[in-house]
Each structure stands twice: as structure tokens, then as C-alpha cells.
Amino acid sequence: MENLELNEISKQIQEYLIDAGINAHSANYLLLIFWILVTALIVWITNRITKHYLLRIVERLVYRTKSKYDDLLIKRQVLRRLTNILPMLVIYFMLDTIFSSLMGQTYVETVQRILSTTIVFVILWAFMALLGVVKDIYDTFPYAKDRPIKSVVQVIQIAASFIAVLGAISILFDIDVTNIMTGLGATAAILLLVFKDTILGFVAGIQLSANKMVSAGDWITMPTYKADGTVIDITLNTVKVQNWDKTITTIPTYKMVEDSFINWKGMEHSGGRRIKRSFNIDVRSVKFCSAEMLERFKNIRLLKDYIVQKEEELKIHNLHKEGESAMVSLANGRHLTNIGVLRKYLQEYLKEHPMISNEMTCMVRHLQPTEKGQPIEIYAFSKDQEWLNYESIQADIFDHILAVIEEFDLRIYQLPSGSDFHPMQSNLASLKQL
Question: What is the mean pLDDT of the segment spanning 327-340?
Fold first, then answer.
């Protein structure tokens, strides 16, 4: 009915132009220009009403709801993108009702195909935004950090784009989709080669997410790629790591499954950060403790009870097991050593340290002796996991160890330096003068 009415109006305008002395050919062109202007005006009015009035009303209603999820539809502009379809539908309707008689059916069908193709891509554009809304909603849940879906969303986007392109080709060139798929079958091997990283990345992304191997915000170390820092983004093809020197390392996603890497998330969740560092004792300074040394050690608060208890224990043992031989030679019986007392002191020192966790492993142990002396290792866990604070706590502990070591008549081993040879050179120079 509407079609007949518009055609009737078109005929009346054309007759009026001919009656005004304009030839039929020119009148047809003028009529075409008139309807183009009318269509443009209707399109402008439709766009104005939908975007500046109806859409704003919908946005206000959405913002007034209690749920925050529907706000994401506005933030991601899903509805705004969909409103672009209405003006195109107006043009499509006008083409079918008016311009077919003025331009010819062939031209009208060509323009309609272009319009239909454009509508397909506008729908794809809105669908991409909708996927963003789904991802934003998913990211609000607590388990989203351990199981991100960004790579899955990207795969859906690629699949949707592929389907949209097939649909556009089918509409634009009037080709059956099945024929297009048949033609693509011959190029499947090439497509697999081109999208190899994408396919591997998708599979790897599922494995990383399902097994909770890595997520954004984790501190990872991957020596193969010289990566040591925080994961800032995980995509379909790459994992971006911001290193501690503020550089960014980009790692192919599938390499995170193929190669090994260290995820420090377990340490962060454990409540402590491991301190594992050693220092070397000059073995020539190791000796049995004399009576004078033991009396001196009793003045150290952390050792007083230990020394008293050990003296009594060793006295009873040596008296019953060794007899007088324990008094003849220190090789007989059991006796305290300065290095053993040092270990006990450090153990008690760490237990009292306010920033060392007593709920986790804490020990002072000997390592295998080397040509550089006897290594003694501190193995404990700092309560503070932040890098700067952790390094400060570790440094304070070893500052104290290096300063207190002489109280036990021990020496730290270090390789000779220039200052060590200087007295020797001075003595040699004096001898030469003599």
C-alpha cells in the first residue's frame, strides 16, 4: 500500500514537471534528485531521533538500574553501533519502493547488495563490542584472574569475522556459501600455515587457563626469553611481560606450554619470600672453644642459656665416656667449636628477627667446603615479599653477620686483593735497601 502511494506521488511530481515545460528525460533526473534529497532527509531524521533521543532515554534508564552489568552495554557502545542499521534500512526500503522505477532494477540490486554487506559488518562491529561486554562481566568474578578468557574471546572474534566475510562475499557477488567453502577447502593448507601461531596460541591459551599456569599480574621468570617480571597481558598470540628494568618482553603464547618458566605466584601466596644466601669462613680460623671464649660467649644474651646447658652436657659426657683422656687432648671427647657456636647464635638471631617467619623453614647449615673456605648458608623466609623491603631485610641480616663474625674469633674468607699485597711489597722494598 505504501509502495503504491509513493509511486503515485512520484508520478504526480513527474507529470507536474512535464506540464511545466520540462522534457521527460530531464524530469526523470529532477525526480531522482528529489527522492535522493527526501531519502537523505529521512535518513538524517531517523538517525537524529534514534541517537539523540531514543538512545539517550535508553541510556538514562540503564544507568538507573541497580545492576552494573547493563552499564557495560553503554560503555562499549553496543546499542549505539546497532542504531547505525536503521538509516541503512530506510535507504533499503526507499530503493525498493521508489528508485527501482527511476534507476532500473539492476542498479538498485547492486546498491542493495552493498547496503546488505554494510549491515553485515555493522552487526559484526556491534557483536565485537558485545564480546567485550562479556569479557568485562567475566573479569568481575574472582576466578577470572586465574582463568582469563581473552584468548577465547579473540578466537570468537576471528571466527565471527570469518563468517561475516563469507556472508558479505555471498551477498555481494550472489554466490552460495557452500560453494565458497568448497573453494576454500583447496587453500586450507595455506590457511593453516598462515594461522599456525593463532591456532597454537588458542590451544596454549586454553591449557594456560585450564591449568592456572599463568595469569595477568603474575611474576614469572623465563630465562629462554630473558623475561623476569610481571605479566601485563595475555592475548591469543603473545604474552607480554614487563621486566623489572621496565623493558617489555613479548613471548609467543604457545611457547609458555612448550618451554619451562618459573611462576612466583606460589611464593606470593605462601606469606613468605625465601632468603638463601651463604658466606665463606676461613677454615684456618676454626677452632675449639677455650674456657675464656666460653665465658665471653655467656655475655651474649642469645647464647647464655645454650652455653651453660652445653657445658653441663659435655662435662657429663666426657666424664663418663672419655674419663681423664678428655683432659689430655681436645681430640678426645666432645667440645664446642667457635663455628658451631656461631651457627647456634645465627639460628637464635633469625628466630628473634621480627621480619623472619617462624612458621616456615629457618636454618643455618654447612655447605660443601671449597677452595674458598667453609660456606655457611642462611635459609629462611622473609615475612615481607615486596622486592625492596625483602632486599633490605636480607642485607641487614648479612650486615650483622659480617660485623659480628669476629666476636667468635672467625674470619670471612675473601680472595687476596691489592691492599693485601701492599705490606709484602713494602717489606721486600725494605729488604732490598738493606
Answer: 79
